[in-house]
Amino acid sequence: MRITHSLAAVAALLVAAPALAHDEEALKAAPPGEPFIQVSDALPLPEFIPGLGTLFVDPASLPAGPFLAYDHDGRLSATVYMTPLADLQNGTAYDGLGVGSHTVSGVDIYYNAGHPGVDKPHAHVVLYHDAAAKDRLAK
Q1: Are 68 and 76 in contact (CB under 8 A)?
Q2: Smallest Cα–Cα separation from 124: which of 77, 43, 70, 65?
Q3: Please, are residues 24 and 33 in contact by the beta-carbon 8 Å criterion?
Q4: Helix ranges (DSSP H) in 21-138
Q5: Backbone phi, then psi, for 54, in 5-degree steps?
Q6: Strands (E), the chain
Q7: How far apart are alpha carbons 52 and 77 in whole angstroms?
Q8: Cα distance between residue 76 and residue 91, in whole Å
Q9: pTM of the model
């Protein structure tokens, strides 16, 4: 039984390794730096999207992201994923997605019919990084 638990722990660490491979301190304040770009500079979207904040993404990680979501003060508040429903239904797996911060205080998942950048219906998965983050991103 201990061997099974040990193997599971090693597997969990190996799966988590890509998500741990960034400098979390460097992402705490906007702008996060390369390879991230501000979404509103690349797409016809407002700089601050109520409910999501100011978004930055590495274009190579599209469509799923992670999108780093910053509040009006430039503080990292959430990590957002946008996973197309058709891709998920057809068996696409989005494995090893990064996170802006390893602290997560809450998660929301909701449907989006599509918008510039991710035109197809998709799910938004939002990881909030502190208890007040959702409120800061709402306005």
Answers
A1: yes
A2: 65
A3: no
A4: 24-27, 39-42, 85-89, 133-138
A5: -90, 120
A6: 37-38, 54-57, 67-70, 76-84, 106-112, 122-128
A7: 9
A8: 31
A9: 0.82
pLDDT tens digit sequence for 36-84: 999 999 989 999 999 999 999 999 999 999 999 999 999 999 999 999 9
- Note whether 122 and 63 are within 8 A (CB): yes
Residue 25 tokens read as 């301190």
The pLDDT score that the predictor gives to residue 23 is: 77
**Residues 28 and 76: beta-carbon distance below 8 Å:** yes
Domains in the chain, CATH or no CATH each: 2-138 (3.30.200.270)
